[in-house]
Amino acid sequence: FYDARLPASVCNAHDLREWLKQNAGSLVMQDSDLPTAQDLSHDFPDSITLNGTRLALTYLNAPGESDDGVSCIVPASFLPMVSSWQSDWLVPGLLDEKVRWMVNVLPSKIRRLLQPYDETIGLCRSRMTPGRGTLAQALADAIYAVRAIRVPIDGWNEDACPTHLRMRFVAINEEGKELGSGRDCTTLASLFAKESAAATQAKRPASQWHRDAITTWDLDELPSQVDVGKAGWPIIHYPALEDKGDSVSLRLFSEASEAAAVHEKGVCRLFALALGKEWKRYQSAPSLPREVSLYLAQLETTAAALGLEIGAAALRETFTAEKPAIRDEATFRARFKSEQSRLHALHLERTRLVLAILQTASALTSTLTKAKDIQQSTSESILDQLAWLVFPGFAESTQLAHLKEVPRYLEACLMRIQRCKINPPGDSRKEAELQPVWQRYTDFIGSDKITRVDKALLSQYRWMVEEYRVSLFAQELRTPYPVSSKRLNTLWGELADNL
Predict the structure, then answer these.
(1) What pLDDT is recorded for position 194?
(2) Which candidate, 79, 83, 253, 82, places its Cα nearest to that of 171?
């Protein structure tokens, strides 16, 4: 505008004043001089829609202030629903800036491998689907896809992100009065949601993805995922049936893996309800020998709890384990009709296995207590192994294929005790071979990386370690497949590649 009107000779304040005396009004802008307004409604939407509910968004450029950036105005009763929204994706107009910040805060040894940054960020953005999973996981996956570099997502701390690159939530009551605000919606929900839930329950709009007290499959087909709203892009959630004890509830989940795990338990509950009075028999406490009852007391559990665990596991193995997920009534009824006859045999098999394991574990504990002539390190190693094999809940959580092998593992422990008495140095040498492959597993289980690993590979590694123990301490019991520290290292490498 100014270049087109001011001559090149005007280059100081005096010349400008003299020129304006002869050209008054020449620098007054008209509407036609203004640039065409951009449509920012997609990049910076004025609201989001979650499950049919419109929530206002406001924007403020106020660096250093508590309300800097994007604010989402949320009625207090809707805070729990909003907590499941992957708000770390913000809105389209801010995503590129946040991704650039995330790349910039990576350790220099990783960052230098991502050059040129603009190209890397552009390639990553083309592979990222906003709203599906966390932003950190999506970016880490994209970086691996375009640069073959594994980035640990625990290096990205959302709390360390610049204020304007984190969604701010403002909780309001029915009258629109602000109750509180902050960047953590879960905290706000714990403070204000329950307080206002009763008052707004009657006014809350009905949702096809929110139902309670379901006792039979009277639902339409459940899609694997649904688009529940907009935040400049689709918001994808995953419907699942959630077990509530005497019924199930239909809910939405923001993570596909969580929804799948919850849904399997919910479907099993519907199968249990379909069995009617017959199900009570499968939940009853088994008859236990005295030594097993005493051993259960040491585990701080009871025969009644054991009965519930065995029943739940048998139900899962009968109707859902290693089978396609059930998402419609026809499949549910067909599965019930075709598999119901297997339940009794599976329940009986698991019951016998669990009782045999508990008897052997009890005998093993007694043997260790009486064995005063074995080294302490051996005793501690066996007790640690036993704690990972037999614990409150093992009767339900251990898959049948692995449960069948546990008696052999316990027998190997008994043989190890006898051999340790004869050759303590030999036992120590074998324990030194075992420790590295076992320690890295236990360390990993306690880390936050557990949520990102291939669960099938991790389970394979865990049980291969048990076979490795057999090969070290009781070779004559044999293993069902070749096992060695080299094979375990190779499998662990595969796990690391998938992180």
Answers:
(1) 64
(2) 79
